[in-house]
């Protein structure tokens, strides 16, 4: 143990940009300042992260937002009870299609403007045209079945009248292989985090058609998943880590630090990609197709808009999508498991000594904030939202049965 | 019931390791072993092979894709699940430590799978040990080379005998509590920075 370290924490992460807050907590000294010796292990699959958490190699890890829910609901092997006391950021993903699919979409009115309603409508028209001609369904890839990517892709398609279970095929491809799979024609499109969308644009083999921040503004993506047994045995270590992550996230958000952050992430032990490739996610300025460029507000937020608060409404929305796509049955028991997975209480109690602004509620009505809205107590400033879904739907976690029923009927109508 | 031999599929990008496992399984009497290094087109291969047990190295970045395929693909006639023996946490830990995971078709009895997993684990460990020893031998050779160069520099610049040069390196290493090869490397680097390169 290093001099002065009172807590030793071992964490796993995937080489993706949204591990930045965890990586910077270790590399920029935020963990050490909280008395933590943080050991980070780079992993090659989410399955490995799940396994190593379960057998105790890792105390906690960078995880896909729905992954801890899938563990607790028994959807994965070797599952161990996992809780989420911290979110690693909002947004960051895009949907990219091949040049051929883009040409077909453009013929049906798609514009390089990322507008999910317009591009989705054009994609639907292309899909029906192909079906009429007897061609194979388009194949889209996501990174994991229990991922924000899978659920937001399906949400977008379904809201545009496309049945993702019947009219397209969805397969799993690891993020670094997406661009190659698209170029080789093994897939027609994909939903993944940056820089794997810009990678296809740079190679001249793909077009970005929409982004997560436009499908559902300020929506959850990666989280810190913690083995519950470890959290219960080490409450002080966890609280110290949450404070370190808070300081790290604030540092990551500040544009003055983006150069240094990109240099840290560029190291082979972390993301291992040149700083220039990381700029789109840091600036929100995307090259869509080698011609059109667009700057997206709130493209990826590692800290602002209470990005680190583990909203129960985020977990519950993931749960509704697991139900919607047949991953889990909607029962009172399963709902209770989903409700207990994200732990805003732990976040709040760890950060309380810092005197920073904290949301007062554990859940919010998603899609209700049309503009950025100041909330919280006087003196401490906290701005939330906007948090709208592109189709204008509202998710009220207190009306979860109605939401699930509404999505079911929408699916049978289309 | 007729006891048929199990069809085992080994998915490993490391060809040498895969062949070591394959050999081990064959020695243990498993005739139906298939090795795949590249996962492209794997759904079709699985449909052909109809494996009872699938062994995958944990470094394989396609594990998430494979797990999803085992559950959903039309290529898989019976669901395939990860081998998890709740009563035997130690063997799961040993497998993850060794860097291997196993998947089995629905309904296969645990005791028939366990020897295959144990075999894979021991062969994975043997391979890691071999790779480590090879790496040690390589770095041993490297440090011997750098010590020779450092001795050469000392002999030339200070007019020492080979033995005296080595003794000086050893004494310096002991005084600084560092390895001789580290001291030698520092000397070679410093000499390269300071003077006309000794070799050029």
UniProtKB/TrEMBL annotation, chain A:
Subcellular location(s) of the protein: Endomembrane system
GO cellular component: endomembrane system
Superkingdom as given in the UniProt entry: Bacteria
InterPro entries: NrtA/CpmA_ABC-bd_dom (IPR044527)
SUPFAM superfamilies: Periplasmic binding protein-like II
Keywords: Cell inner membrane, Cell membrane, Membrane, Transport
Pfam family, one: NMT1_2
The protein's name: Nitrate transporter
TrEMBL record, chain B:
A GO MF label: RNA binding
UniProt modified residues of type 4-aspartylphosphate: 57
Alphabetical list of Gene3D superfamilies matching this protein: 3.40.50.2300, Winged helix-like DNA-binding domain superfamily/Winged helix DNA-binding domain
Residues in Response regulatory domain copies: 7-121
UniProt cross-references to InterPro entries, sorted A to Z: ANTAR (IPR005561), CheY-like_superfamily (IPR011006), Sig_transdc_resp-reg_antiterm (IPR008327), Sig_transdc_resp-reg_receiver (IPR001789), WH-like_DNA-bd_sf (IPR036388)
UniProt GO BP: phosphorelay signal transduction system
ANTAR domain location: 127-188
Keywords: Phosphoprotein
Recorded superkingdom: Bacteria
PANTHER family reported for this sequence: PTHR43367, TWO-COMPONENT RESPONSE REGULATOR-LIKE APRR6-RELATED
Protein name: Two-component system response regulator
Protein source organism: Mesorhizobium helmanticense
């Amino acid at each position: 143990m290093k001099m002065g370290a009172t807590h030793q924490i071992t964490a796993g992460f995937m080489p993706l940009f949204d591990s930045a807050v965890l990586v910077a907590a270790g590399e920029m000294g935020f963990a050490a300042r909280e008395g933590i010796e943080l050991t980070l292990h780079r992993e090659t699959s989410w399955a490995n992260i799940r396994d190593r958490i379960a057998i105790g190699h890792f105390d906690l890890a960078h995880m896909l937002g729905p992954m801890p829910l899938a563990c607790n609901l028994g959807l994965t092997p070797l599952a161990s009870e996992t809780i989420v006391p911290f979110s690693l950021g909002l947004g960051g993903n895009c949907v990219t299609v091949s040049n051929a699919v883009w040409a077909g979409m453009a013929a049906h009115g798609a514009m390089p403007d990322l507008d999910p309603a317009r591009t989705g409508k054009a994609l639907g028209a292309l899909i029906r045209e192909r079906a009429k001609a007897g061609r194979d369904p388009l194949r889209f890839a996501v990174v994991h079945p229990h991922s924000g990517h899978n659920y937001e892709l399906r949400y977008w398609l379904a809201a545009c009248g496309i049945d993702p279970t019947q009219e397209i095929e969805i397969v799993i491809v690891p993020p670094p292989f997406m661009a190659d799979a698209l170029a080789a024609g093994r897939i027609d499109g994909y939903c993944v985090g940056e820089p794997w969308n810009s990678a296809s644009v740079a190679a001249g083999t793909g077009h970005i058609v929409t982004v997560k921040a436009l499908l559902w503004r300020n929506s959850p993506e990666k989280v810190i998943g913690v083995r519950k047994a470890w959290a219960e045995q080490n409450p002080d270590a966890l609280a110290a880590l949450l404070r370190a992550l808070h300081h790290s996230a604030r540092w990551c958000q500040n544009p003055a630090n983006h150069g240094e952050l990109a240099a840290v992430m560029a190291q082979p032990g972390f993301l291992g990609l040149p700083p220039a490739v990381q700029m789109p996610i840091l600036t929100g300025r995307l090259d869509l197709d080698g011609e059109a460029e667009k700057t997206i507000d709130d493209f990826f937020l590692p800290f602002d808009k209470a990005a680190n608060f583990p909203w129960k409404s985020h977990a519950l929305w993931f749960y509704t999508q697991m139900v919607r796509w047949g991953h889990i049955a909607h029962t009172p028991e399963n709902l209770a498991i989903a409700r207990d997975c994200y732990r805003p209480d732990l976040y709040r109690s760890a950060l309380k000594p810092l005197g920073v602004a904290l949301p007062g509620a554990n859940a919010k009505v998603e899609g209700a904030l049309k503009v950025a809205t100041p909330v919280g107590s006087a003196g401490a400033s906290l701005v939330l939202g906007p948090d709208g879904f592109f189709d204008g739907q509202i998710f009220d976690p207190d009306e979860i049965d109605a939401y699930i029923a509404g999505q079911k009927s929408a699916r049978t109508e289309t | 019931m007729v006891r048929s031999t199990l069809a085992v599929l080994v998915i490993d990008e490391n060809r040498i390791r895969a062949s070591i496992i394959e050999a081990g399984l064959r020695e243990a009497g498993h005739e139906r072993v298939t090795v795949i290094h590249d996962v492209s087109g794997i759904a079709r291969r699985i449909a052909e092979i109809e494996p009872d047990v699938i062994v995958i190295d944990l470094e394989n970045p396609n594990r998430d894709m494979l797990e999803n395929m085992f559950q959903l693909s039309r290529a898989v006639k019976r669901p395939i699940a990860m081998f998890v023996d709740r009563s035997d946490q130690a063997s799961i830990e040993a497998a993850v430590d060794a860097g291997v995971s196993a998947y089995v078709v629905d309904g296969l009895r645990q005791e028939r799978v366990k020897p295959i997993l144990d075999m894979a684990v021991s062969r994975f460990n043997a391979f890691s040990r071999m790779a480590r020893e090879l790496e040690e031998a390589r770095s041993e050779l490297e440090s011997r080379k750098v010590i020779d160069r450092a001795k050469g520099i000392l002999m030339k610049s200070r007019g020492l005998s080979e033995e005296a040069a080595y003794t000086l390196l050893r004494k310096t290493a002991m005084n600084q509590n560092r390895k001789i090869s580290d001291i030698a490397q520092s000397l070679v680097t410093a000499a390269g920075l300071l003077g006309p390169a000794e070799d050029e």
